[in-house]
Amino acid sequence: MLDIENEGKYIYCIIASEFSREFDISGIGERGDTVYSICTNGIAAVVSNAPLKKYKTSRENLMTHEKVIEEVIKQLKKIIMQLSVSCLIYVLIK
Questions:
Q1: CA dist 40 → 37, 44, 74 (Å)
Q2: Where are the domains positioned within the chain?
Q3: Which one of 43, 47, 52, 77 is at 20 to 30 Å from 6 when CA atoms are compared?
Q4: What is the pLDDT at residue 52?
């Protein structure tokens, strides 16, 4: 059963998009949550549902995060901003 009070969104990156979409890859954690975008005013966050907790900077989590970013870039050819597992933010240039 899903614990709504402890449920949040894991954010992978920010993209330019006029509409929401789903990506063909599972998100971080072991639940297989769908990765999708939440869109407003031409910009969207690429997210998956995830339990509210501190995620370890483990090889598995880093690889999952990177694979999601690779899938987004493969489909869209660019992203505006990537959020890393360790919460560092950097801008990707076209």
A1: 10, 6, 22
A2: 4-85
A3: 43
A4: 85
H or E element: which one contains 70? helix 59-76
What is the average per-residue pLDDT within 42-48? 92
Residues 6+ apart with CB under 8 A from 40: none
Q: What residues contact residue 61 under an 8 Å CB cut-off, 6+ apart?
A: 28, 55, 85
pTM value is: 0.79
The predicted model gives 18-41 an average pLDDT of 92
Do the beta carbons of residue 79 and residue 69 sit within 8 Å? yes
Element (H, E) at 41: none
CA angle centred on 33, ends 30 and 39, rounded to 5°: 145
The residues near 80 (Cβ < 8 Å, ≥ 6 apart) are 13, 14, 15, 16, 43, 91, 92
